[in-house]
Design a protein that fits this description.
By secondary structure, this protein is an alpha+beta fold. It has one domain. 14% of the residues lie in helices and 19% in strands. The chain contains one helix and three strands; from the N terminus they run αβββ. A hairpin with a 5-residue loop joins β2 and β3. The structure holds zinc ion. Zinc ion (ZN) binds next to loops.
Length: 95
């Protein structure tokens, strides 16, 4: 029920993926300051956190919305180049 990307939804439809290098850049930026994310291509103030999702994304592309605690991923969307990405944003330091 909590799918974040579904046909017919009002949510923006991504037009393509970010590269691995861009994904890494976004991940580092997110860990530094989640409220200040720059798109590697478009620059500052274009990235929005659409939702927090389970880190394991279904092969069909559906993801369950979750709380930003423990293991989770953040679904990011750039309003300028219309690309979306899920980055693993949860704590990674052991227990
Ligand atoms: Zn962009």
């Amino acid at each position: 029920m909590n799918r974040i990307v579904e046909e017919g939804d009002a949510l923006p439809q991504p037009e393509g993926p970010f590269s691995d290098a861009e994904a890494l850049e976004l991940l580092m930026a997110y860990r530094k300051d989640p409220s200040n994310l720059d798109c590697p291509l478009c620059g500052p103030s274009t990235i929005e956190v659409l939702a927090f999702i389970e880190p394991d994304i279904d092969p069909s592309g559906f993801a369950s919305v979750t709380d930003p605690e423990g293991d989770y991923a953040a679904a990011l969307y750039c309003h300028t180049c219309h690309r979306a990405i899920g980055i693993l944003a949860g704590a990674v330091r052991g227990e």
